[in-house]
Specification:
about 260 residues, alpha/beta, disordered N terminus, binds S-adenosylmethionine
């Protein structure tokens, strides 16, 4: 591993943010501003592939979700689609599943959806992913879908996930990637130009949809993310590309 990697804080940097606190504030305000239209925009801009990605991610953790006593945290849950996908995979098992996010407006929408079905207990909590209000070693599974990339400090985010996971507990981070080749080129044109234009038009808010491609560009590539995961106490770290690497799932097992 590159020793310099430890010396710089790597995380989201929305326009105008100068430190961790202002970056987090800007991210929270941004998601709060698009909360009313978030689901619609998500499905339109991803052509509904996001549903497949949440389902695949949830399915990867079947073994934990089917355990009746399991405790599951979906970090940066937003309007709850990843959380609901986890709950659906639990089937008739009865794990406790919590969705956490620091945007009240996003959580309100998640709670309003309150899908029925499955024996899992579902709850929502307003919390910052870098300062979680949970004791050490509390959860068996922590997931995060398209949220981790927005943290102002990725290593601090990984450390906090490791802290709240029980030894042997698993972590699953689903986020965007940058596919290579010809498809990568076409995708970048869509992601950098078409998506921000449509996003701004539909949400009526300028900014968030320009931030999105910039944040994906800043996000460490898979080999670096895996290295950071190993350094923060995860073993069996792996990355599985979804849809040619447009998205992908990072997995790791908490040491100990
Ligand atoms: C792109 S949305 C993803 C929402 C949902 N997981 C999904 O897949 O649709 C990112 C979410 O991360 C939340 N978020 C970003 N940084 C956070 C932090 N430090 N603590 C808690 N939530 C955060 C935002 O409020 C937003 O709701």
């Amino acid at each position: 591993m590159n020793p310099e990697m430890n010396q710089r804080i790597v995380g989201a940097a929305p326009a105008g943010a100068s430190d961790r606190e202002s970056a987090a504030r800007a991210v929270r305000e941004m998601f709060t501003s698009i909360a009313p239209r978030y689901d619609l925009l998500n499905h339109v801009l991803s052509f509904n592939i996001d549903r497949l990605w949440w389902w695949r991610t949830a399915r990867s953790f079947d073994a934990i979700l089917k355990r009746p006593e399991a405790r599951v945290l979906d970090l940066c849950c937003g309007t709850g689609d990843m959380t609901f996908a986890l709950r659906r995979r639990a089937g008739s098992a009865t794990p406790q599943i919590l969705g956490a996010d620091f945007s009240h407006a996003m959580l309100q929408r998640a709670a309003a959806k309150a899908e029925k079905g499955s024996g899992a207990t579902l709850g929502w909590i307003e919390a910052d992913a870098l300062r979680l209000p949970f004791p050490d070693e509390h959860f068996n599974l922590v997931t995060s879908a398209f949220g981790f990339r927005n943290l102002a400090d990725y290593d601090a985010g990984l450390r906090e996930i490791a802290r709240v996971l029980a030894p042997g507990g698993e972590c699953g981070i689903l986020d965007f990637g940058e596919p290579g080749g010809l498809l990568g080129h076409a995708y970048r044109v869509y992601f950098k130009h078409v998506l921000p234009a449509i996003g701004t038009m539909l949400s009526g808010v300028r900014g968030p949809y320009a931030y999105l491609p910039a944040s994906v560009e800043r996000f460490p590539p898979p080999d670096e993310m895996l290295s950071r995961m190993r350094q923060t106490g995860f073993r069996e770290a792996s990355w599985t590309p979804y849809t040619f690497g447009i998205a992908g799932l990072y997995r790791g097992v908490r040491n100990g």
